[in-house]
Design a protein that fits this description.
Elements lengths: L7 E4 L5 H11 L4 E6 L3 H12 L5 E5 L5 H13 L6 E4 L14 H28 L3 E6 L3 H4 L5 H21 L4 E6 L14 H10 L8 H12 L10 E2 L8
Parallel strand pairs: 1-2, 1-4, 2-3, 4-5, 5-6, 6-7
Helix pairs in contact: 1-2, 1-8, 3-4, 4-6
């Protein structure tokens, strides 16, 4: 295999938050970085510019990950630039907060499509390249609620629980091909996703966490980076939850 810092990583939903932190972490060693976004063109370009400061080759790509056709077009573009990913980070996702009795069928379909269907479609698209070279990494960004479940976040918890099962099953399927599949399931992280809570609610959550604070995106990115390393080749099918002791 090519040296680690000459490989290519694709991060979905990388225009902000955890995805942007992951992009910066890989760019910091000079790796080729593909920053995916849907609508946040300027934010994605800002992340790209900051990644380029490390000397990395950086691309931005836009695609609606609910659409197989758009993912196929993204594949063709990356292939034409010699940027097919050796490492795929399925990070793009949305949250949903509310009572199950208030959830509409449209809410359900949207959360499942973006959080669960998209990682399936992306993995399916880029797997042949990894299998052909007998090497690859797929890392899914899940959630603590995919393990424990959360009141008023039933459909989000369900989608992330599906990602965890997807991770375990696909890891077994791909192990003979030299491709590892793992999931990082963070607890509360200081990102825009936490803006659904007011200051009092955030304080209550922090008081429930033994470490007394939210995680920073860089801390999640460091774990993702570790799982991508060649030295992590014997770790597969794992759901690892950096959550400050919130869930043990």
């Amino acid at each position: 295999m090519k040296p680690f810092n000459e490989q290519t990583v694709l991060i979905t939903g990388a225009s902000r938050g955890i995805g942007a932190a992951i992009a910066h972490r890989f760019a910091s060693i000079g790796m080729n970085v593909v920053i995916h976004y849907l609508q946040s063109h300027e934010l994605a370009n800002e992340v790209a510019r900051s990644c380029m400061q490390y000397g990395s080759k950086v691309m931005t790509v836009t695609a609606d990950l609910q659409s197989k056709d758009q993912i196929d077009k993204m594949y063709e573009k990356l292939q034409s630039y010699g940027m097919l990913p050796d490492i795929l980070i399925n990070n793009a996702g949305i949250s949903h907060y509310g009572l199950l009795s208030d959830v509409t069928e449209e809410d359900w379909d949207r959360v499942m499509s973006i959080n669960l269907k998209a990682p399936f479609l992306c993995s399916q698209a880029f797997l042949p390249h990894m299998i052909s070279q007998k090497y690859g990494r797929i890392i899914n960004v899940s959630s603590i609620w995919g393990i424990a479940g959360a009141s008023c976040e039933v459909i989000y918890s369900t989608a992330k629980g599906g990602i965890n099962a997807f991770t375990k099953a696909l890891a077994k399927e791909l192990a003979p091909s030299g491709v590892t599949v793992n999931a990082v399931a963070p607890g509360a992280v200081d990102t825009e996703m936490m803006q659904m809570f007011d200051a009092s609610e955030k304080n209550d959550i922090e008081n429930d966490i033994p470490m007394g604070r939210f995680a920073m995106p860089d801390e999640i990115a460091s774990l993702v980076y570790f799982l991508a390393l060649p030295e992590s080749s014997y770790i597969t099918g794992q759901i690892i939850s950096p959550n400050g002791g919130w869930l043990t």
